Task: inverse folding
């Protein structure tokens, strides 16, 4: 990370940005292979998920607590509502910000609803020994098992060599996430303290310190700190969204009206023979 954000080695970041989409495609393909190999067990797997969620034992066990844990892990999965993703989306050139909002809404659906459901199905229908061990661990109140190990063991039941590929994919995902959050943090830092070489280097030092701290702390400590930090981000961001609701409603109504009337494509076109830049909506 130091080589990338201090040394300015852009090739590592550029290579990661190319490999991560490829790894995501490989991961989805592996999920499909496991699911298709156990296709007759898919209905029973959905039944297991629904029964575990809505059974009397599950409800009595604390619906609110389960929902809180779900919100926490969803925040790690797709960052929806945290205010971080808009930093990346704001770099897009568009005359209608609402259109980019639809893109942003589609991402959590793909990430959490589709890919996470595929992962859950793969783990349940594969029935690796670590799955039952994880269930026993949760029932004994010893915390949740390692999700990467559960997924790796599930894939290994059909593709014995895939745990190696999954390990590489996890490393690439983690490394690219570090680069992405450095960009987010740097932009927030520059907003607060201005942009200068000294100021940026101070943030780089702070970021690398916490990167090292995250490696030496226990997993539970890292998760607890991240949950607290993300809660603060979500609280502040959603408060801002609530205050902007009138603006959002007005923009949405105008966008949908233009889309329905067929004017949307005309609004994005420059006047014939004009080279002047039009003001963005």
Result:
């Amino acid at each position: 990370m130091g080589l990338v954000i201090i040394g300015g080695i852009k090739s590592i970041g550029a290579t990661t940005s190319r490999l991560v989409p490829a790894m995501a495609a490989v991961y989805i393909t592996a999920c499909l292979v496991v699911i298709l190999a156990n296709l007759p067990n898919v209905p029973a797997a959905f039944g297991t998920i629904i029964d575990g969620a809505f059974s009397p034992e599950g409800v009595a066990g604390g619906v609110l607590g389960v929902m809180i844990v779900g919100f926490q892990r969803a925040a790690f999965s797709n960052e929806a509502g945290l205010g971080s993703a808009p930093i990346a989306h704001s770099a897009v050139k568009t005359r209608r910000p609402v259109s980019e909002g639809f893109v942003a809404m589609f991402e959590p659906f793909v990430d959490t609803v589709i890919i996470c459901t595929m992962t859950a199905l793969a783990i349940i229908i594969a029935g690796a020994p670590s799955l039952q061990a994880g269930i026993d661990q949760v029932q004994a109140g010893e915390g949740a098992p390692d999700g990467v190990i559960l997924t790796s063991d599930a894939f290994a039941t059909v593709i014995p060599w895939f745990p190696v590929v999954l390990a590489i994919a996890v490393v690439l995902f983690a490394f690219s996430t570090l680069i992405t959050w450095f960009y987010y943090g740097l932009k927030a830092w520059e907003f607060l303290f201005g942009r200068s070489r000294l100021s940026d280097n101070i943030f780089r030092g702070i970021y690398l310190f916490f990167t090292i701290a995250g490696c030496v702390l226990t997993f539970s400590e890292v998760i607890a700190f991240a949950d607290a930090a993300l809660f603060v981000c979500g609280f502040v961001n959603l408060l801002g969204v609530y205050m902007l609701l009138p603006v959002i409603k007005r923009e949405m109504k105008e966008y949908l009206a233009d889309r329905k009337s067929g004017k949307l494509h005309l609004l994005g076109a420059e006047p014939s023979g004009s080279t002047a830049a039009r003001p963005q909506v």
